[in-house]
């Protein structure tokens, strides 16, 4: 089993259950060929069934069988947009950028070793929302959340997990989105006919003295 939506974008997958949240965001269409996986209930059903099976395997928790209706489909798309905004808010905090609270159920259950686990609860897409918010909270507590990012290419916006040492990645793929952005910036500078701020204009050197033999 794999994370179907994220695999289409060729991104680095987030660890453990956080990959489910990344997977939801990556149901958006890819730049090259992939369609939106949340357009029809049939497509969404196939994606969600596979995603929850993978999540159950990596998290060690059971996942229910969720049957997607047209109403659920709209709720899933809203949920996808919400988490995109949460990630963007973390990357670009603003004083007036408060997000609405998430009203989702969750259960705290002690396991056999005495550790308290956060277990999603609720029905239908409420259960899905519960699982996603729980994974977001666990990722924040583990220090993983700042590494889940959206590609800076606005035509892409794929969710990727940044594994760089200083957490400085901005493109899901430097060879595609990074080069595309650099080329666009170069063409814009060329169109404006100026030089970038970190380039110095070329100045003429001293005149060359010609020595003629006597």
Specify the number of helices: 6
Shape: globular
Q: Spell the H/E element sequence.
A: HHHHEEHEEH
Mean pLDDT: 84
Rg measurement, Å: 24 Å
Q: What's the arrangement of strands in the largest beta sheet? A: 1-2
Q: How would you sum up the major sheet? A: 2 strands, antiparallel
Distance between the termini: 86 Å
User: How many beta-strand segments?
Assistant: 4
Structural class: mainly alpha
**What are the segments in which pLDDT stays under 50 over at least 5 consecutive residues?**
201-214
Q: In percent terms, what proportion of residues is strand?
A: 5-15%
What proportion of the residues is helical, as a percent range?
40-55%
Could you please describe the fold and organization of this structure?
The longest helix has 22 residues, at 70-91. The strands form two sheets. This protein has a two-stranded antiparallel ribbon. It has a two-stranded antiparallel ribbon with strand order 3-4. The radius of gyration is 24 Å and the shape is globular. By secondary structure, it is mostly helical. Helices cover 43% and strands 7% of the residues. It has helices at residues 4-9, 18-25, 41-59, 70-91, 125-141, 174-192, and strands at 106-110, 116-120, 148-150, 159-161.
